[in-house]
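ZP: hey, is the zinc ion complex queued? I don't see it on the tracker
AM: it wasn't, my bad. submitting now with these inputs:
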Amino acid sequence: MIVNVPTADALDDVALRLYFTAWSNLIKIIDEFEQVYDVKFDLDRDDSWEEERLGYLKACQPELQSTCAIIQQSNEIALKAMICRVSPFLLLLKSDPKFSIQNGDVDFSEFRTLDAVDLPLAVNSLCEEPLSDRFIQTYNLVRSLRNTIAHLGASTKKFRPEELIKILLFQYPQIWRSRLWLKDRVEFASQTRTSYFHDFKYTSPHMDVMHELPTTISMIGKADFKKLFGEAKSKRRYLCHQCVDAANTRYADLDLDVCRTAHLIEDGKNIHCLMCGGTFPVVRRKCEVDGCKGDVISQDDSEYPECCHTCGKYRDDAPAGEWVTSSV
Ligand SMILES: [Zn+2]
Ligand SMILES: [Zn+2]
């Protein structure tokens, strides 16, 4: 019999892990330049840092090429997951298995699976929801670049991190239609090498993701933001106490202004967090903290009683009328 038959969920997990590995590489490439020079990494800007930006981009090429190969691998496995969801044995179409007179188990991995070049048409022929033409274009572009890198060790193309980021942002809602991007970002930050250190006391996946959030938000344009999160990028965002609490470890040094991951939903009585996917009831009254204009406060019987979703401060068992800085 055939053993170790893959499941669609296991393949999707690998595809997402590779997707967010690529994402994390690209954000680090941009972040590190910005931290050293204290300027935006924007190649289209004509300013006194132009030479440094170009020099840095040149030095980034090997890493950008490796990242392109990771995106291709993620794409290929994601499409295999779609086919596998119909039946894993469809992945063996076009294979020519060698049968043996001897009876015994055969590992699925010993069979040749569909070639990368055939996957988009296989998905469109076998799966309920077809891939868009634009997705297939990006898939083929990444695949051909990766082939050049794999076969010649390098590509003459000059990669730019923001163009690979744009491909990733476009592809996610095309592949994983019912998943939450920022929730997955945290989930897959907890499957990395550094996750070994995630004890939620000194570090956590939420902390890592909050640290990259300013670059993440700045790289996601208005249209991609709406597609990924279902809300306008310009819509006011609030603190999610659960996520800030999980991120606020000893090494976090969080800037709460950039940790806003929740939106007020239409009824005005709940907030929904893009990071944990949670929906939390709120009361609408003015925050009494000096200088805070917030009017979205968590309920007094919640896990974070009467904590302001704008400034992150709350009134717990302190004397009436006195607000104290919360642990978040
Ligand atoms: Zn949250
Ligand atoms: Zn407040």
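AM: back. DSSP finds nine helices and nine strands in the chain.
ZP: great, adding it to the tracker
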